[in-house]
Amino acid sequence: MRMHNPAKSITTCLVLLVIVSNIYTQNTGDYPIKPVEFTQVHFSDQFWEPRLKNNIGVTIPSSFKKCEETGRIDNFQVAGNLKKGVFRGVFPFDDSDVYKIIEGASYALAIRPDPQLSSYLDTVIMYIAAAQEPDGYLQTWRTIDPFKPPTDWSGDENRWSNIESGHELYNVGHLYEAAVAHYKATGKRTLLDVALKNANLIVNIFGPGKIITVPGHEEIEIGLIKLYRVTGNKHYLDQARFFIEHRGKIEGRDKLFGEYNQDHIPVLRQTEAVGHAVRAAYLYSAMTDVGAVTGDTSYLHALGMIWDNVVSKKIYLTGGIGARRQGESFGDNYELPNFTAYNETCAAIANILWNYRMFLMHGDAKYMDVLERTLYNGMIAGVSLSGDHFFYPNPLASNGEATFNMGSCTRSAWFDCSCCPSNVTRFIPSIPGYVYAIRDNQLYVNLFIGNTAELEVSGNRVAISQTTGYPWDNKIRIVLKPEESAEFSLKLRIPGWARNEVMAGDLYHYTDEMEGSVSITVNGTKEPVMLENGYSAISRVWNNGDVVELSLPMNVRIVASNAKVAENLGKIAVECGPIVYCAEGIDNTADVLNATLSESTVFEKEFKKDLLGGISVIRTVPSIPGENELLLIPYYGWSNRGVGKMAVWFTHK
Predict the structure, then answer these.
(1) DSSP state letter for 329
(2) Model confidence over 70-125: pLDDT tens digits?
């Protein structure tokens, strides 16, 4: 069964269903700051709304089509004896792609009802349920033929025989996330029941007095916490905690998996981000979840040190993480090559997930600063403007010849290992959920995106809207319409780049002067800008129609790296607002890989509505002999017009 290509508007959105059945949510500890559900926030801007529509209309259907063509969906039918065949695929984690796209499609249904998409999901979920073995086990290749694994990673014919690389636990982690998303979006228990049956099997198999081990690829921990939140079943929380706390502990195990799997020392003693970047950030996300739910502050101490290590020594200017192609992993401190930068798209998404959780725990804008930087640069670079071609790695330089993207010089429609495309499908619809957050009588405004939303602050219903041309424009207009006059604190995030800080730490710094200052007015009257943890709070009684206007100093800035980053010695980069810029060969006569800029370069910014979906370009006007004239575009937009050279860092003349 093939899904149609939906193209309806998403401006009218469903409020997320609050389901009451024999599944319940237990009142437990959790994050002190509460996220606002993405279905409560409706985008209406020229930057993000088209991307949401494109994800629903292009990315999700094209990804499902690829799953059909490559046998990923057929595998569930074969495993469930619904059709004859053999396992089709290359990797033991191929099942997870289907689960992630279901999660994204479920978010799409919550945003906009679509009976045909809903029916398609019902069919795919029926295949998944059929593939599940009677005791809850679910891994299609092993059910189809355990003697013919897709790769040599998968052990022998016995279940759990290669936990390090077989991905049995990774796959079902994404199943759990998809099941919760589908249940919340539709109220249907079909996939949730499959997930719970499998989770109960996992609880019975792993733990004290049972199999003592940890997943090779972290992810199930996040899924288990989501199941715990929707069911209140503490076994799922305990299982997630067991998997986390047994990392790096040899007791009861034959061996440790090592740094690649963050399994070299116990997590509470880890102070540095090491190994596979996606696995690491999923682990850190789960640790933050468990720390929030249980109140275990020892998790937060370890996470704080790891976060500091990443942001001060191991993150790219674009927010990408994972310097090394070998092992898709973090490198040593200050190891940040540009041509060979890996920066997997999945790692950018995982980095966003982790930083948002850190914000919900601590309420510090520095986490949202990293989130925003990653979102506008390292993450959206991973998908083409057309919505159906993808980057797996995201380097910061290209000679137009090296086949860095799994054999290609540019984005590809799919990969044998397609974790990144399927991750994009599930992440983009969730972006509205990052705009606002609430703590008691405080309303956080974290991202600046044109939208309308219905919120509740201290028991008061508040309608809020933003109007802005961000990220190209520096002005944000916020209108508040409380149902009744209400007293609360509106906390406006003042981005790091508007506080003259690239990111926390000294890995990057601006070399020029910030022009202007932050300005805030309420109903035309200027408010003092008083920063605390990166937020400027306005506490007052709010009335229907109150208008807040925020102006940010958004001039073009020059960035340099810490001198310990050998790759960037004698080089500078250019950004404006949250956007990192690059030079692409198609726009320039100069060789962009050898181009020079100086601190006295004059920058001219111009909005081009017909270029790359509408962007602000930056032209450089040489100020000294030998300096190049360049046209710069947002990094995320490169390689949408063919193969060619690209550079983010330029020689400092």
Answers:
(1) B
(2) 999 999 999 999 999 999 999 999 999 999 999 999 999 999 999 999 999 999 99
Which residue in the block uniquely carries the two structure tokens 């983010």?
A: 648
In the sheet that holds 460-468, the strands lie side by side as 41-43, 451-457, 460-468, 475-482, 546-551, 519-522, 525-527
The fraction of the chain above a pLDDT of 70, given in percent, is: 96
Domain count for the chain, please give it: 2
Residue 376 CB contacts under 8 Å (≥ 6 apart), including other chains = 471, 578, 579, 580, 634, 636
Mind telling me the catalytic residues?
Answer: 328, 419
Q: How far apart are CA 69 and CA 74, in angstroms?
A: 9
Residue 581 and residue 532 in one domain: no
Residue 98 parent element (H or E): helix 94-111
Alpha carbon separation from 225 to 156, 164, 239, 286, 349 (Å, rounded):
30, 21, 9, 8, 18
Location of structure tokens 């998944």: 128
Question: Do 218 and 275 contact (CB within 8 A), yes or no?
Answer: no
pLDDT digits (tens, 9 = 90+) for 370-397: 999 999 999 999 999 999 999 999 999 9
Averaged confidence pLDDT in the chain = 94
The token pair at 218 is 């972290």
> DSSP readout, 455-477?
EEETTEEEEEEEEE-TTT--EEE
Query: In terms of domains, do 533 and 561 share one?
Result: no
Last residue of a domain, one of 551, 569, 594: 551
CATH number at residue 464: 2.60.40.1180
Answer yes or no: is 48 within a domain: no
Q: Which domain holds residue 636?
A: 556-652
DSSP 169: H
Residue environment code for 83-112, b if the CB has 16+ CB neighbours within 10 A, otherwise e:
eeeebbbebbbbbbbbbbbbbbbbbbbbbb
447 found inside a domain:
yes
393, part of any domain: no
588 and 543 in one domain?
no
Same domain, 539 and 458: yes
Asked if residue 594 is part of any domain, the answer here is yes
Torsion angle defined by CA atoms of residues 137, 140, 143 and 149, in that order, rounded to the nearest 10 degrees: -120
Q: For tokens 């991202």, name the residue.
A: 447
The identity of residue 343, as a single letter, is: N
CB-count exposure of residue 519 (10 Å: 0-12, 13-18, 19+): middle
